[in-house]
Amino acid sequence: MTRAAEPIVHIDDDRFRVTEWRFAPGAETGWHRHMHDYVIVPLADGTLRLDMPGGQQARAELKHGVPYSRRVGVEHNVTNASPEAPLSFLEVEVVDDALAGRRRATMERLMAAFNARDLDALMACMANDCAFHAAAGPEAEGRVHRGREAVRAACAAIFETYPVAAWTEGVHVVAGDTGLSTWRFIGTTREGSEVDVRGCDVFAFDGELIARKDSYRKARA
Ligand code: NI
User: How far is the CA of 147 from the centre of ligand 1 (A)?
Assistant: First the structure.
């Protein structure tokens, strides 16, 4: 008969999850797949048996306080193979990459919403407290539109100005709380003048939503 190892979650926020696993002799975690990169810090000396997909087995010798790291995607069942001693370790998972992935998805949805000229979808990407700093305007920041109503109106004005508009070649990068989208904008104004210009948006995030969209464009000269 097998016993389940006991997980105790010490930290669970948007950057880290730290779980202490306590194993009685013979206890096991059960099969699981690691969804994040992680570090194991043994809290005792001991031996783990690792069962892997396809029936492979391995043993790992744990040394108290000597950490090791593994990449996302590891799949196994972990058993305390020490016949008599209990065993425990800290598992430190880096979950920041999950938030970065959701932020990148928000940037992709935002560009899709611009191309679909869908104001509701566009505002669904924006945080409650949001601002849009347009590429051109009288201020050092361009023109600042603050608050959901103002941001929505500014985006509607872009669609007004450009009955034909496409944001293409989007590349989206997330670094900490900052996002960067580069793109090529191709549009035609109501007056019929054509615009084809590269630009970028620098984003500040609130959770996975956009708190500030700060736009820049090349100036043709
Ligand atoms: Ni594991």
Answer: 45
pLDDT tens per residue, range 177-212: 999 999 999 999 999 999 999 999 999 999 999 999
May I ask the CATH architecture of the domain 6-94? Sandwich (2.60)
CA of 51 to the centre of ligand 1 (A): 10
Taking the whole predicted model, whether its pTM rises above 0.70 is answered as no
The pLDDT assigned to 9 comes to 98
What class has domain 97-217? Answer: alpha beta
Q: How far is the CA of 61 from the centre of ligand 1 (A)?
A: 15
Q: Write the burial class of residue 125 (CB in 10 Å: 0-12 exposed, 13-18 middle, 19+ buried).
A: buried
Residue 218 CA to residue 221 CA, distance in Å, equals: 9
Span from the CA of 91 to the centroid of ligand 1 (angstroms): 8
